[in-house]
Amino acid sequence: MTEESQSWPLAPNRIHHRSDEENPAFKAIRKERSNKCFIYVFATIVFLGLILLIFSLIVLRPKSPDVKIRSVTVKTLHYITSPFPSVNATLVAEISIENPNFGPYSFDGSSARILYGGQKIGERRFGKGRTETRGRTRVRLTMDIRSSRLPEGANNLNSDLNNGVLKISSYAKITGKVELIKIINNRKTSEMKCDMNLVLKTKRIKDLRS
């Protein structure tokens, strides 16, 4: 009796699959994508930073309001040249306060003056107020001017009255607070200076200039 030979099945060969992560080409592609992503993120941050810088320079930089005297009219006028020169008048002035900021401007109470030869001959106070964003506020003032307020002998009043023209000027100083995006408050001050001629014969203001 012959012995039957027994055959045993061979163990299957192990097939080792190389993952994509070990593929050099894949690593290069992934690295390139990472670099591009970093560049895009960096460029976005720089762009947003520039936008914020421009925004802060243009919008968030507080500016002083523009204060101007728009008109002056003569309500009453009385003057004499002898024996003692004097002039009394009532002027009605309109002052505008223009706010160039991207936020409201709240100003304190102040006063406007009328000067002759650098000396005060009239003054009128006005109360506090508010000018809206990039808006304008008009203030109407009635001021009495009196030459009796001048220092004695320190002016050319007699000569100017005889010439028929009184050279006067106005001055006002306004201080207030600019409110930007409700978190930034800055105090700003503006001054108004204006020269004008009071024509006695016609009782009118001419040559109004800032």
Structure description:
By secondary structure, the protein is an alpha+beta fold. The chain has 2 domains: 34-63; 66-209, Immunoglobulin-like (Sandwich). It is built from 2 helices and 10 strands. It has helices at residues 24-58, 157-163, and strands spanning 66-80, 86-98, 105-107, 110-116, 119-126, 129-131, 136-146, 165-180, 184-199, 204-209. Strands 3, 4, 5, 6, 8, 9 and 10 form a 7-stranded antiparallel sheet that branches. A 3-stranded antiparallel sheet has the order 1-2-7. The longest helix has 35 residues, at 24-58. It holds the Pfam family LEA_2. InterPro entries: LEA_2, NDR1-like. One of its GO terms (cellular component) is plasma membrane. Residues 95-194 form the Late embryogenesis abundant protein LEA-2 subgroup domain.
**Topology-level CATH name of the largest domain:** Immunoglobulin-like
Encode the helix/strand succession as letters.
HEEEEEEEHEEE
Low-confidence stretches: none
Name the CATH class of the largest domain.
Answer: Mainly Beta
Rg, Å, rounded: 41 Å
Mean pLDDT: 85
Indicate the proportion of strand residues: over 45%
Please summarize the sheet with the most strands.
Answer: 7 strands, antiparallel
Give the domain tally.
Answer: 2
Going by CATH, the architecture of the largest domain would be Sandwich
Distance between the termini: 136 Å
Number of strands: 10
Secondary structure tally, helices = 2
Question: What coarse outline follows from CA principal-axis ratios?
Answer: rod-shaped
Helix % is 10-25%
> Helices and strands: which structural class?
alpha+beta
